[in-house]
Model the fold of this input.
Amino acid sequence: MPSLQEQLSKKEELLDIRGLKMVFHTYAGEVKALDGVDMNVRKGEVFGLVGESGCGKSVMALCISRLLPENAKILSGQIILKGDDLLKKSNEEMREVRMKRIAMVFQDPMTFLNPVLTVAEQVSEVYLLDPKRLSKEIAEKRIHELNEKLARMSEEEADYSRTKQDISKFQELLQSHGTLGRRELRKAAWERTVDVLRIVRLADPERIAKQYPHELSGGMRQRAMIAMALARNPDIFIADEITTALDVTVQAQILALLKDLRKEIQASILIITHDLGIVAEMCDRVAVMYAGNIVEVADVKEIFRNPLHPYTQGLLRAIPRIDKELETLDSIPGSVPDLIFPPTGCRFHPRCPYAFDACKQYKPPLIEAAPGHFVECFLYGGLPRE
Ligand code: SF4
Done:
């Protein structure tokens, strides 16, 4: 299997978002939440989407999964997952995509876990929704276990031919793409649930599987949510501020878990956060978002070493540093714009120390200022556009 770095260097795009415009209709007016967003996530990478609260990063996650509220409307653009435009899919088809291809974990697991069902009931439900895949996984697991058992046996042992028969039975199931019987499926779902709870490092998974969400700590609930996401075996795993509500120690444990899982799962990971520390720790590439626009995209090391956009520079300056003595922390002057009446031209212009006339009239294009380093700012070129 190619290494992660080899996979990344092939630059195979898994998720490609082009020109996404989205608004919310509210009593106060139309909130222009996404203003023509372009972004892509490559196969196998951890991609960070960072920005202040209200900049539109969580809305992006809702657009990708098409879980928008009724007052939201996507005006234009494409969201292409492995060649399929998700915006052209019917609601029924999207349910299937959410079930099998996109997994999301949010900040507050209590909102998404069902309080009247045990962890096992909720995780095993994910497996039971796709009995063919569950049967295939169990058949492969059994064949592996039985082959190991066979290797330790001599042909004279009473169990030898029985073990061989069992292997053939599971091989037939695999070849016929069939499913296990109802009772076997339930047993298999329980077994896979315990497996996945073990993968997310929940100690004593059999006991935890039988517990209700209120009986678990915040960190354990977040691990249970991650287990449900992994059970889907998704193409992309979206983690939206998943450590924000946790205390620092648990936060570190969940991040360490995500790092470990990255080696074990094949999915790309999209991390949505306001925390640049998490981006530095976890991500391969990062997109910086401001007021519904992606203003800069680059490899993580490049962004921290050489931030180009005035907003990214301001964000990085605002991080407190232990190697510098400061009387006051740096901050970006002004406040986040009202997206019902967003600034004309470059949406950052009222707060930008370098703004000039064209910035107030025209929106800058996203240009490649250095290989793989994209920025949306006239300081680096690009003709003003309407
Ligand atoms: Fe500042 Fe103009 Fe660049 Fe916008 S386009 S970030 S206002 S210099």
Remarks:
- Residues 4-101+234-341+372-380 form a domain with the Rossmann fold fold (CATH 3.40.50.300).
